[in-house]
Automatic annotation (TrEMBL):
Keywords (A to Z) from UniProt: ATP-binding, Nucleotide-binding
Tagged with keyword Manganese: no
Single GO term (MF): ATP hydrolysis activity
Gene3D superfamilies (UniProt xref): P-loop containing nucleotide triphosphate hydrolases
SUPFAM superfamilies assigned: P-loop containing nucleoside triphosphate hydrolases
InterPro entries tied to this protein: AAA+_ATPase (IPR003593), ABC_transporter-like_ATP-bd (IPR003439), ABC_transporter-like_CS (IPR017871), FeS-cluster_ATPase_SufC (IPR010230), P-loop_NTPase (IPR027417)
Superkingdom classification of source: Bacteria
Protein name: Fe-S cluster assembly ATPase SufC
Start and end residues of each ABC transporter domain: 4-246
Gene: sufC
One Pfam family cited in the UniProt record for this chain: ABC_tran
Length: 258
């Protein structure tokens, strides 16, 4: 079992504090969901975990199996087993999907143990079939000209191929129609197991109709203010966030960043 531990994490952007003491522990075999109103720091948390230079960690810690994640460069975090499916994936001209994924997979393997081309192609074809993706997408440049839904499927394809230890999925359901949502959810569900843990950041219960989380957390004012099981997400869908604000005496949860 692997464990990602976030302790009392404080993060600033351009001198403004966004995260104000986040505590979270994610084990492999677990799916966690973070929900909360806009501007409460959910995407900031994802960026801080992966080391986006725009986000300054001012105090607290992030460890993966006891190793200090904050001391790692972004590529080192990826090789250690962390993965981020971005809310707005970048386009990279001149680099095909297939070449990108094969390079990413080999970066996590020992020198001399690179995946063979035939094994890679077989695995890629099978995963693309699961995600109902056209085979020609493998030879298209990374995210270039992709629709929003294609970009999100492609993020899940990368996750399924790279097989990270802990994946952070930042609003992977954003902009998906119901059919695409089911397909993406199937891909995530196929990954669940003893060697994989997942943190899903979402605004909506609808994704959690297809992926049952083990833990649901609510973020407000840059902190995790409430945690529970899957039933918490259902209550939020039915009643919104006002009952939590009333329960905790929160008047204004906005901190200015997602």
């Amino acid at each position: 079992m692997s464990t990602l531990v976030i302790k009392d994490l404080h993060v600033e952007i351009e001198g403004k504090e966004i995260l104000k003491g986040v505590n979270l522990t994610i084990n492999t075999s677990e799916i966690h969901a973070i929900m909360g109103p806009n501007g409460t720091g959910k995407s900031t948390l994802a960026s801080a975990i992966m080391g986006h230079p725009k986000y300054e960690v001012t105090s607290g810690s992030i460890t993966l199996d006891g190793e200090d994640v904050l001391d790692m460069e972004v590529d080192e975090r990826a090789r250690a087993g962390l993965f981020l499916a971005m809310q707005y994936p970048s386009e990279i001209s001149g680099v095909t999907n297939a070449d990108f994924m094969r390079s990413a997979m080999n970066a996590r393997r020992e020198e001399g143990d690179e995946i063979s081309l035939m094994k890679f192609i077989r695995e890629l074809d099978s995963k693309m079939e699961v995600l109902d993706m056209d085979q020609d997408m493998a030879q298209r440049y990374l995210n270039e000209g992709f629709s929003g839904g294609e970009k999100k499927r492609n993020e899940i394809l990368q996750m399924m191929m790279i097989k990270p230890t802990i994946a952070v999925l930042d609003e992977i359901d954003s902009g998906l129609d119901i059919d695409a949502l089911k397909v993406v959810s199937d891909g995530i569900n196929q990954m669940k197991g003893e060697d994989f843990g997942c943190l899903i950041i979402t605004h909506y219960q609808r994704l959690l109709n297809y992926i049952t989380p083990d833990h649901v957390h609510v973020m407000m004012q840059g902190r995790v203010v409430k945690s529970g099981g899957a039933e918490l997400a259902h209550k939020l869908e039915a009643e919104g966030y006002d009952w939590i604000k009333q329960e905790l005496g929160i008047e204004d949860e906005t901190v200015g960043q997602a």
